[in-house]
Amino acid sequence: MDAQVAVIGVGSIGSMALWQLARQGVDAIGFERYAPGHDQAAAGGESRIFRTAYLEGPGYVPLLLRARELWRELEEESGQSLLTLNGGLMIGHAESESMRNVLESAARFDLPHQVLDAEQMAARYPQHRMLPGEIAFFDEWAGVLRPEFAVLAAARAARTRGARLVTGHSVTGIEPFSDGVRVHTAVRTYTVEQAVLTAGPWTGRFAPELADQVTPKKLVMTWYPALDVDAYRPDRFPIFIRESGDVHIFGIPTLDGGSVKVAPHASYGDLADADDLDRNVPPGDLKSINRAVAELLPGLLPTPVRISSYMDAYTSDGHGLVGALPGVDNVWLLGAFSGHGFKLATAFGQVAADLVTDGKTNLPIEQLDPARFIG
Ligand SMILES: Cc1cc2nc3c(=O)[nH]c(=O)nc-3n(C[C@H](O)[C@H](O)[C@H](O)COP(=O)(O)OP(=O)(O)OC[C@H]3O[C@@H](n4cnc5c(N)ncnc54)[C@H](O)[C@@H]3O)c2cc1C
User: Fold this and answer.
1) What is the model's pLDDT at position 337?
2) Separation of CA 338 and ligand 1 centre (Å)
3) pLDDT, tens digit, for every residue of 285-340?
4) 119: Cβ contacts below 8 Å, ≥ 6 apart
5) Domain boundaries of the chain, sorted by first residue
6) Centroid of ligand 1 to alpha carbon of 40 (angstroms)
């Protein structure tokens, strides 16, 4: 055997899995087609949102609380600041499903929050123009993560604790057998006891029985210049998500001291294969986000100064895949986080290590079981 465990893809989730495995003393090798911290797949573009009152459903809250603790542990171990909890606003209609999920998350788990009406919003956060019938939910445990540095920090921490990394070429296939898994690369084949699949947008390639349910999608992020940049610094401008009518956008305070990220909370379309990502963005594709900025964020100039394309794998129900690869008992799958997995990466790293060492975890992952798609 070359190692106990192979982690295939050292991106957002794989880097955290490698770190947690190394922390538990498991001999692991991480395989990464680029190098940890790259911005060619799902993690990149300077920032990701962290939030705790979850619009995707209260079932995620225990994972989010554990993720937050582990982000702080990674900061301590790496000496780097990775998560700034400057608060977050969820803006929308009180009766919408997203707002109901956020309110239910807060009530069920006693999360610190405030509900603000249009008048209170105008007084506290005049950067937002509220529409009739909208309210805002302020999540105190929300903020900004730094994706590239977080992945790098976890990969470095894992290496310091003894994990090995193979970078610069792809895993071309895996072959589970009764006592282990063969991991093929263009250079050589490695044999390990178990494998953790964290290939992000390429998840479908390694899980052919789930391929119908997993689609890589292109996502575009845009940064807009602020007229008064001080009003958009983290202490005055919480992260926000706005789900209201046909508006689905999110925003992050200025990190570069000049521009504010405001981007669509939806994808720009399906990719037949993650290798097909065209990072070019035709100007016509930006009409609706530019219009939303002009209408809802009057302190920003509605023409972006920076545009970047990324991708993530999506499932048909919008929830990730976490658990055994169907029909295989020594390969664990963690992927297809459907545009909202980064904040949970540290918790999923722990889940991966729990599954490898124990075959189970105490964290609630039942709703993410890949077997839900197998008829
Ligand atoms: C534009 C955008 C904005 C987002 N905003 C948020 C947000 O605000 N908050 C949030 O929580 N989430 C957000 N997400 C979602 C989140 O970023 C993703 O769900 C998460 O990063 C997915 O992590 P992953 O590990 O599955 O994929 P990745 O981070 O892409 O990691 C997969 C890794 O596997 C490697 N790999 C793939 N195939 C192979 C192979 N054959 N051999 C070797 N290596 C391989 C890749 O190079 C890559 O490094 C956003 C996503 C995008 C694209």
Assistant:
1) 98
2) 10
3) 999 999 999 999 999 999 999 999 999 999 999 999 999 999 999 999 999 999 99
4) none
5) 3-44+148-213+317-373, 86-141+215-315
6) 9
- pLDDT at position 266: 82
Homologous superfamily (CATH) of 86-141+215-315 is D-Amino Acid Oxidase, subunit A, domain 2 (3.30.9.10)
Is 340 close to ligand 1, i.e. is its CB under 6 Å away?
Answer: yes
195 with 30: CB under 8 angstroms? no
**Residue 299's closest CA among 222, 232, 223, 221?**
232
- Find the 231 Cα to ligand 1 centroid distance in Å: 31
CATH superfamily of 3-44+148-213+317-373: FAD/NAD(P)-binding domain (3.50.50.60)
Both structure tokens of 20: 């947690």
Query: Quick one: pLDDT band at residue 246, thresholds 50, 70, 90?
Result: confident
Contact 304, 292 (CB under 8 A): no
Q: Which atom of ligand 1 is nearest to the CA of 42?
A: 30
Output the CA 107–ligand 1 centroid distance in Å: 31
Average pLDDT over residues 331-358: 98
